[in-house]
Amino acid sequence: ADDHVYMEKTSDLNEYVLNETGRIFYGTEDQIAERSWNYGQFDAGVLEACLYILDRRGMPYSARGDPVMVSRVVSAMVNSLDDNGVLVGNWTGDYAQGTNPSAWAGSVDILRSYHGAGAPVRYGQCWVFAGVMTTVLRCLGLPTRTVTNYNSAHDTDVSLTTDIYFDENMKPLERLNTDSVW
After folding, report:
1. Nearest in space to 107 (alpha carbons), one of 81, 68, 74
2. How many CB atoms lie within 10 A of CB 16?
3. Could you tell me how far CA 41 lies from the centroid of its own chain?
4. Across the chain, what does the average pLDDT equal?
5. In which band, very low, low, confident or very high, does the pLDDT at 157 lie, cut at 50, 70 and 90?
6. Beta partners for 22?
7. Which pLDDT value is given to residue 1?
8. Per residue in 91-112, pLDDT tens?
């Protein structure tokens, strides 16, 4: 069978699988910042943590050869929201019960903590989720790079659009307006 993640060019393999450090951009479209990130996909304990993520989600061994399925499971498990995944998101500014997301400079401590405690790590924000996702997928052999976007749409009704509803007087119908752009 074909290897769907095989990288013929050594330069691509080096960049998307073997590179252990990188830059992650964050902020807003008007105020872009960047930070160094240690992916650390080959550090001690990281592979065990990555396999634990798949196990915790109940991913069958027979599905682990499918890069799309692995990516979907990892995407779901990087955040803790509904499946006790790796990181708890927090945008409130109150980080007393955990670590300020700005304090993280890599994925290794996050993944080791999650695996060791068996509980979500407090706290992450978008760039932290992205860095951890990149680490896990690279560790599992999937070519990955971190990509930043600055305007995200949240489609709550699976219409593939962001919708705003108005009454006959052009007054927004707030009870129906659950989609958002942030």
Report:
1. 74
2. 18
3. 15
4. 94
5. confident
6. 37
7. 56
8. 999 999 999 999 999 999 999 9
Task: Name 88's bridge partners.
Answer: 122
Q: Mind giving me the DSSP string for the chain?
A: ---TT---SHHHHIIIII--EEEEEEEETTEEEEEEEE--TTSTTHHHHHHHHHHHTT--GGGTT-HHHHHHHHHHHHB-TTT--SEEE--SS--TTS--GGG--BSHHHHHHHHHHSS-EEEE-HHHHHHHHHHHHHHTT--------S--EE-SSSSSS----B-TTS-B-TTT---EE-
pTM given for the model: 0.87
Rounded-to-integer distance, Cα 140 and Cα 146, Å: 16
**How much is the pLDDT for 13?**
95
pLDDT band at 159 (very low <50, low <70, confident <90, very high): confident
- C-alpha radius of gyration, the chain, whole number: 18
Rounded Cα gap, residues 28 and 66, in angstroms: 34
To which residue do tokens 């990288």 refer?
A: 7
Judge residue 133's burial from the number of C-beta atoms within 10 Å of its C-beta, 0-12 exposed, 13-18 middle, 19 or more buried: buried
Instruction: Copy the structure tokens of residue 170.
Output: 């052009």
Residue carrying the six token digits 């290794």: 108
What average pLDDT score do residues 122-150 get?
96
For residues 148 and 177, give the distance between their C-alpha atoms in angstroms, rounded to a whole number: 26
**What's the length of the chain?**
182
